[in-house]
Amino acid sequence: MARYLPTSPPEHAQRYHGAWSHYMNGSTSQSMPVFGMFDNGGDLMETSFLMEGLLAARQYFHGTSVAEKDLYQHITRLWETVEWDWYRSDPKSDFLYWHWSREWGDQIHHPLIGFNEVMITYLLAMASPTHGVPVDMYYSGWAGQSHTAINYRGGWSGSLDGHHYGNGHTYYGIKLDVGVGTGGPLFFTHYSYFGFDPHGLRDRYTSSYFENNRNIALINRAYSIANPKHFDGYGPNAWGLTASDGPEGYVPHAPDATYDRGTLVPTGALASFPYTPEASMAAFKHYYRDLGPQLWDIYGPRDAFNPGHNWISPIYMGLNQAPIVVMVENYRTGLVWKNFMSNPEITDMLRKLDRLTSTAAH
After folding, report:
1. Measured distance CA(12)–CA(5) in Å, rounded
2. Which of 19, 145, 227, 318 has the fewest CB atoms below 10 angstroms from its CB?
3. Averaged pLDDT, 152-176
């Protein structure tokens, strides 16, 4: 895959100031504007997930053979040519922005604001040795307190809990330090943490993102047990509300009145193994042993199911299969976490962020 991502023209996979697009045609390598005509350029968030995996691979293939040295150097060139600072749009901007297109510029102009799946974008942008952004953008952008940030959080969630980034409320007896509403879909606790070990991160709002992610998963399960909308199939072994295919199409299923549609998603519980191993194993046994004849097939679990609609997804979605594999391995051995966190740029970035956080605390 890395060879499909050259560092200089002629490029197989098009780049836009170092970022790749969300969708690429596998035959032609051309960008595909799936989300409308303005979406024909770089996607910084998807680039972040790709680079998270590449940096973990860079440290794993850090041997002395010619092939490993060559791969290490190639990934390093890819990493150092992502222009994170370009996606700031303006040198004075508090935010990173999601998209940029040669034809349309920053027409979409969607700021990246937490808490959600895009924490890794800020962490990598802060860590970049060549096109980095100031570390204080963590607090001005990702955890920002501006009207833009507050309105953004409240807008997508419909909740005032956590619209200032910090939450502090208790749901089903479980306190949530960071997160909007009851935490949102569970992929918020997966994508940024495929490589980035949440044990290693704290800030002004929580002493541990690992514990915070665990609490989001526990709230998700507790909601499914309480089942306030009385959907079929929910219970202590059937939980994991997160984005997936559904009877109504792709929906960011979540434990709240708006996004709970009665659709259960195996990846939600199974990719939460590092946070909730016993509860995730119980869900795995239920999905495989009890529902396996309907739910399980050649590629593992189908994407989702909705008992009330007597509906099972006809597809397997790589977007939801991959988190299961990666997060189960992080639970078993910590392999991906260990390799990603061994990148020296990540270590340096965390030191800077910790100094900034400690200074503000005093």
Report:
1. 7
2. 318
3. 95
User: Which residue(s) pair with 4 in the sheet?
Assistant: none
Cα–Cα dist 319/218, whole Å? 22
Q: What is the mean pLDDT of residues 259-286?
A: 98
- Residue among 164, 82, 179 at smallest CA distance from 126: 82
Q: What value, to the nearest 5°, has the Cα angle with vertex 187 and ends 185 and 193?
A: 140
Cβ atoms within 10 Å, residue 264: 28
Could you tell me which of 279, 169, 178 has the C-alpha nearest to residue 268?
A: 279
Residue 255's contacts (CB-CB under 8 Å, 6 or more residues apart) are: 182, 183, 219, 220, 223, 224, 241
At 9 the pLDDT is: 58
The partner residues of 170 in beta bridges, in order of sequence, read: 175
For residue 5, the model assigns a pLDDT of 78
- Give the burial string for 13-48 (b: 16+ CB within 10 Å, else e): ebbbbbbbbbebeeeeeebebeeeebbbbbbbbbbb
Q: Which residue has the tokens 């990666």?
A: 326
Closest residue by Cα to residue 337 from 128, 194, 186:
194
Give the residue among 314, 282, 310, 275 at the shortest CA–CA distance from 297: 314
pLDDT > 50? residue 362: no
Residue range 29-45: mean pLDDT, rounded: 90
Q: Helices 119-127 and 44-60 sit at what angle, rounded to 10 degrees?
A: 60
Amino acid making up residue 243: A
Q: Which residues fall within 8 angstroms of residue 131, CB to CB, at 6 or more apart?
A: 18, 80, 82, 83, 84, 85, 86
Q: In sequence order, what E strands does 112-216 have?
A: 170-171, 174-175
pTM (2 d.p.): 0.95
Q: E strands within 125-283?
A: 170-171, 174-175, 243-244, 251-252
Percent of the chain with pLDDT over 90: 88
